């Protein structure tokens, strides 16, 4: 029996100790009418060899080719040491560190993670993780509503330059709590939040403003002005950032005069493989005064009965297992193992390594933009960007990408579904993983695919 | 020692990052960080040794018996990990076209089908990323269902007092008021109280069966009838599905929506707190509201079903499609066990729980529900010892660490005083259970003969008990460059 160690003798002795005739007897409290008689859709058991062969065949079916898709999930080099350590059984098969004395490894990792995120974002408090960047934004919106006691409107301004899936998830999650999510359009010339569109709301009761950096189009927003606008209008400022970009860009804690109130993002670029969309992790950092509104676990450093330092889960009175219906969130399980990967990843790269990664992204992206411009392609919006750009292709984006995929290049993400005005545009990402030869191949495959479609 | 304290200016691991600094002149000064991020500067060996040593300070399933009630800490088969981490799966971008995603999508489709079968539900969405998000999805679907029928007056969710904290927290997140239903003396839902509570305001009830009290809710059929008659729906919290896998199906019990903790029942790792996966299953009437995306099949092709296919969906819960890597692990696990392996999980987890319960009872431990069968877990109460010797459930839990066993769940459920919730799982051998019982016997003796030893435990761990009040009062949640 797979993973069940019992011998017949064991079962006999155990039943004797219980005083039961058979294992079946142990289910005698379940009404007989409810019992199921066999399962049909689940295939019979297979061995490790057979399942290995099957999974290898399926994995081999999905040949990715050269990947230029970003749109919230980014291909980076992950040092070999990261997942070799992460999948050690002591990390992999441990539970939530509720018994602190038996969980110092996990607890210290989370403390170090919180410290690294505080350093990257410039905000002093980080939680131990949320599910992903999108759910982290939803939690930040709920948190801002709790934290902004002067605002009665529960209106949150959400620029259309925020990742469309993040906006959609936030709507799903805050829908039944009476919170109004208001779209803020972008300037079609720059691809940034339109200051005139924002000005319409000046003087109104606004609970929070969401500020993406870089935004979904890869463009750098005028974050100082946006943060100051939020605070001048009594709104909380919520940053949404790419953590790798923070090795080069101003930390959100220093945006504008006061810095943002809270910042979220997806931690995937810090050591999590693309892996079909997960597991990744969401991070959430905030100013000190908002700590009691923070959802999720937080690790604190303290001392034990002998005065030795160590780590525990702290401020648990915010959480569902203590506060139940009055908790700051229902979150329990988070993304601990992926946070462990991120911590090791950041430690291996260090400040300079992470900066080199971010720099190579900026340079590579600029380099592809230059190549495409030289071939006559239109790249709308400002050139002030991180590692993604919008490319007008003059034909239907979806159709073009299908052609490119057939030629072994995943050319980007089609924008028409979320932005009908950009249905002839795609979002292209270049990370440090792409060489000059890769960029040349991209241009060649793109031109061929476009010519095929046009012809 | 913290990784930051191992840092030395100028030390680095050059092969991990691009060679040389890039030209970032295109990036205007006003967007630039003025000082480098305060990350540690360490060598690769420093990192490997530091985190390997930290790992050794953990208890884990791979190193210790971990009978944590309601958490199902069973063995996580290694092959599930290695196959989910095949390069083809790791490299797949979530937005990769369906033409190059058929291998992955076929696994997800089959996982949906297997979960439908084992739960008796009509459709499954894999997107929720943990149990609590599955709960959210479930209650949001109940909300959407009533709204779609124009039945707007339902403002309450009923939750038994024994429920996990996530249940009431979820109901609140979905905009509902929570009404608690008491438990009767034998551990079942108090039927009279339930009947008095249901009415036109009832949107639904959230139930775990077996309940967190470690017993099967015998009148589940009657509960379903009472709630349905009042127009409410039944939500099944799948935290304890391990106990009934392949024996009874929530769909057959009358539940309208369930979430499954794949990181419990289907043995994906807990990873020190996550990631999990909280797939949801629904009855026919809730199908239109499932969270998206869902994997569909047309002929021999698989594709994502989105808003276009499910216009009444409660929407997206993750930026992509949930914790795909976790779902792949669960898929491999279910294939390895097969249809015949499902009821065996219930058989042997129940056998192990009843065995440990019988042995502890004969040692003199008090059971919370001595007249009931254990399911996959059971509750011991130390109320007597706490009164007589001042030895609490927490003390026993900490003393177990000294004997090399992870503690059971303590002080949950909240309605049993000084309780230990013990869940051995099916993957533990009789020898391990016997050794655990022996440790529990020694602790019982110590509680009488040398209570201070128990109260002062643990004695053999890297740390003794922590000052948790100080942790909360003098909040230190991040290393400070100045102070370090």
UniProtKB/TrEMBL annotation, chain A:
Keyword Oxidoreductase assigned: yes
Keyword annotations of the record: Oxidoreductase
InterPro entries named in the record: GcvPA (IPR023010), GDC-P_N (IPR049315), GDC_P (IPR020581), PyrdxlP-dep_Trfase (IPR015424), PyrdxlP-dep_Trfase_major (IPR015421), PyrdxlP-dep_Trfase_small (IPR015422)
This protein's encoding gene: gcvPA
Catalyzed reactions: N(6)-[(R)-lipoyl]-L-lysyl-[glycine-cleavage complex H protein] + glycine + H(+) = N(6)-[(R)-S(8)-aminomethyldihydrolipoyl]-L-lysyl-[glycine-cleavage complex H protein] + CO2
Pfam families: GDC-P (PF02347)
Record keyword Flavoprotein present: no
Family as reported in the entry's similarity comment: Belongs to the GcvP family. N-terminal subunit subfamily.
Residue ranges annotated for the Glycine cleavage system P-protein N-terminal domain, each copy included: 3-445
Class of enzymatic activity (EC top level): oxidoreductase
Function: The glycine cleavage system catalyzes the degradation of glycine. The P protein binds the alpha-amino group of glycine through its pyridoxal phosphate cofactor; CO(2) is released and the remaining methylamine moiety is then transferred to the lipoamide cofactor of the H protein.
Protein name, entry field: Probable glycine dehydrogenase (decarboxylating) subunit 1
One GO biological process term: glycine decarboxylation via glycine cleavage system
One example GO MF annotation: glycine dehydrogenase (decarboxylating) activity
Subunit annotation: The glycine cleavage system is composed of four proteins: P, T, L and H. In this organism, the P 'protein' is a heterodimer of two subunits.
E.C. no: 1.4.4.2
SUPFAM superfamilies attached to this UniProt entry: PLP-dependent transferases (SSF53383)
From TrEMBL, chain B:
Residue runs in coiled coils: none
N6-(pyridoxal phosphate)lysine: residues carrying this PTM: 264
Catalysed reactions, as listed in the record: N(6)-[(R)-lipoyl]-L-lysyl-[glycine-cleavage complex H protein] + glycine + H(+) = N(6)-[(R)-S(8)-aminomethyldihydrolipoyl]-L-lysyl-[glycine-cleavage complex H protein] + CO2
Enzyme class, spelled out: oxidoreductase
Keyword S-adenosyl-L-methionine carried by entry: no
Record carries keyword Cell cycle: no
InterPro entries (alphabetical): Aminotrans_V_dom (IPR000192), GcvPB (IPR023012), GDC-P_C (IPR049316), GDC_P (IPR020581), PyrdxlP-dep_Trfase (IPR015424), PyrdxlP-dep_Trfase_major (IPR015421), PyrdxlP-dep_Trfase_small (IPR015422)
A Gene Ontology biological process term: glycine decarboxylation via glycine cleavage system
Domain Glycine dehydrogenase C-terminal: 348-449
Region (Disordered): 1-21
Entry's EC annotation: 1.4.4.2
Superkingdom in the source lineage: Bacteria
Pfam family, one: Aminotran_5
Keyword terms: Oxidoreductase, Pyridoxal phosphate
Subunit structure comment from the entry: The glycine cleavage system is composed of four proteins: P, T, L and H. In this organism, the P 'protein' is a heterodimer of two subunits.
Family under the similarity heading: Belongs to the GcvP family. C-terminal subunit subfamily.
Function, as annotated: The glycine cleavage system catalyzes the degradation of glycine. The P protein binds the alpha-amino group of glycine through its pyridoxal phosphate cofactor; CO(2) is released and the remaining methylamine moiety is then transferred to the lipoamide cofactor of the H protein.
Protein known as: Probable glycine dehydrogenase (decarboxylating) subunit 2
Organism of provenance: Ectothiorhodospira magna
Lineage, opening ranks: Bacteria, Pseudomonadati, Pseudomonadota, Gammaproteobacteria, Chromatiales
Gene name, Swiss-Prot/TrEMBL: gcvPB
């Amino acid at each position: 029996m797979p993973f069940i160690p019992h011998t017949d003798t064991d079962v006999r002795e155990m039943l004797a100790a219980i005083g039961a005739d058979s294992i079946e007897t142990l289910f005698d409290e379940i009404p007989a009418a409810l019992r199921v008689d066999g399962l049909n859709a689940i295939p019979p058991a297979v061995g490790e060899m057979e399942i290995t062969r099957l999974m290898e065949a399926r994995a081999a079916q999905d040949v990715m080719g050269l990947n230029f898709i970003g749109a919230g999930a980014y291909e980076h080099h992950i040092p070999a040491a990261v997942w070799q350590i992460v999948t050690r059984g002591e990390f992999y098969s441990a539970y939530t560190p509720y018994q602190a004395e038996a969980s110092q490894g996990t607890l210290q990792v989370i403390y170090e993670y919180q410290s690294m995120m505080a350093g990257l974002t410039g905000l002093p408090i980080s939680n131990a993780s949320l599910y992903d960047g999108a759910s982290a934004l939803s939690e930040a919106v709920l948190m801002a509503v709790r934290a902004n006691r002067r605002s009665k409107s529960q209106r949150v301004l959400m620029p259309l330059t925020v990742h469309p899936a993040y906006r959609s998830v936030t709507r799903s999650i805050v829908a039944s709590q009476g919170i109004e999510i208001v779209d803020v359009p972008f300037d079609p010339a720059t691809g940034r939040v339109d200051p005139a569109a924002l000005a319409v709301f000046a003087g109104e009761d606004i609970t929070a403003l969401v500020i993406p950096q870089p935004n979904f189009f890869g463009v750098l927003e005028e974050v100082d002005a946006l943060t100051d606008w939020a605070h001048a209008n009594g709104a909380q400022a919520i940053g949404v950032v790419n953590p790798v970009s923070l090795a080069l860009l101003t930390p959100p804690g220093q945006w504008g005069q006061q810095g943002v109130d809270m910042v979220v993002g997806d931690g995937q670029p810090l050591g999590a493989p693309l892996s079909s969309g997960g597991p990744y992790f969401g991070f959430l950092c905030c100013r000190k005064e908002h700590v009691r509104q923070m959802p999720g676990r937080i690790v604190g450093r303290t001392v034990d009965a002998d005065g030795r330092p160590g780590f525990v889960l702290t401020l648990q009175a915010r959480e569902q297992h203590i506060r139940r219906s009055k908790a700051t969130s229902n979150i329990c399980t988070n993304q601990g193992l992926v946070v462990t990967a991120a911590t090791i990843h950041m430690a291996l790269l260090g400040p300079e390594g992470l900066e080199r990664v971010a720099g190579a992204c900026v340079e590579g992206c600029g380099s592809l933009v230059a190549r495409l411009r030289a071939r006559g392609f239109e790249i709308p919006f400002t050139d002030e960007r991180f590692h993604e750009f919008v490319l007008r292709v003059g034909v239907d984006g979806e159709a073009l990408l299908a052609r490119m995929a057939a030629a072994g290049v995943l050319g980007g993400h089609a924008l028409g579904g979320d932005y009908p005005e950009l249905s002839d545009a795609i979002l292209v990402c270049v990370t440090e993983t792409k060489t000059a030869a890769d960029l040349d191949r991209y241009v060649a495959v793109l031109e061929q695919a476009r010519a095929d479609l046009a012809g | 020692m913290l990784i930051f304290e191992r840092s030395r200016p100028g030390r680095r691991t050059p092969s991990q990052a691009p060679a040389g600094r890039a030209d970032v002149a295109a990036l205007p000064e006003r967007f630039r960080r003025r000082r480098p991020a305060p990350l540690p500067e360490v060598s690769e060996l420093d990192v490997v040794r530091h985190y390997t040593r930290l790992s050794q300070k953990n208890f884990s399933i791979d190193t210790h018996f971990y009978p944590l009630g309601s958490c199902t800490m069973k063995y996580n088969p290694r092959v599930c990990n290695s196959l989910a981490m095949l390069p083809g799966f790791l490299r797949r971008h979530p937005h990769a076209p369906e033409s190059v995603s058929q291998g992955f999508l076929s696994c997800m489709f089959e996982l949906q089908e297997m979960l439908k079968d084992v739960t008796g539900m009509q459709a499954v969405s894999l997107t929720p990323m943990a149990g609590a998000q599955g709960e959210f999805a479930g209650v949001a679907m109940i909300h959407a269902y009533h709204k779609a029928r124009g039945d707007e007056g339902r403002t309450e969710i009923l939750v038994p007092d024994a429920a996990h904290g996530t249940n009431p927290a979820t109901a609140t997140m979905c905009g509902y008021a929570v009404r608690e239903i008491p438990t009767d003396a034998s551990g079942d839902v108090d039927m009279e109280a339930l009947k008095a509570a249901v009415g036109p305001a009832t949107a639904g009830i959230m139930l775990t069966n077996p309940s967190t009290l470690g017993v099967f809710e015998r009148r589940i059929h009657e509960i379903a009838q009472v709630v349905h008659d009042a127009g409410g729906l039944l939500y099944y919290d799948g935290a304890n599905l391990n106990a009934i896998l392949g024996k009874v199906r929530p769909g057959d019990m009358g539940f309208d929506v369930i979430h499954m903790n794949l990181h419990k029942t289907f043995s994906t790792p807990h990873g020190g707190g996550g990631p999990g996966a909280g797939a949801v299953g629904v009855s026919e009437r809730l199908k239109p509201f499932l969270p998206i995306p869902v994997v569909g099949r047309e002929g021999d092709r698989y594709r994502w079903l989105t808003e276009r296919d499910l216009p009444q969906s409660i929407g997206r819960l993750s930026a992509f499609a949930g914790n795909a890597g976790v779902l792949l692990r669960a898929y491999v696990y279910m294939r390895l066990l097969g249809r015949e392996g499902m009821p065996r999980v219930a058989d042997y987890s129940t056998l192990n729980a009843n065995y440990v319960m019988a042995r502890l009872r004969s040692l003199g431990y008090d059971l919370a529900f001595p007249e009931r069968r254990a399911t996959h877990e059971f509750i011991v109460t130390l109320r007597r010892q706490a009164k007589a010797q001042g030895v609490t459930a927490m003390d026993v839990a900490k003393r177990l660490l000294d004997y090399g066993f992870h503690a059971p769940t303590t002080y949950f459920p909240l309605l049993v005083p000084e309780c230990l919730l013990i869940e051995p799982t099916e993957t533990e051998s009789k020898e391990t259970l016997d050794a655990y019982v022996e440790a529990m016997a020694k602790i019982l003796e110590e509680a009488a003969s040398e209570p201070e030893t128990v109260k002062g435990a643990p004695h053999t761990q890297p740390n003794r008990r922590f000052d948790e009040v100080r942790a909360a009062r003098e909040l230190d949640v991040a290393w400070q460059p100045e102070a370090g």
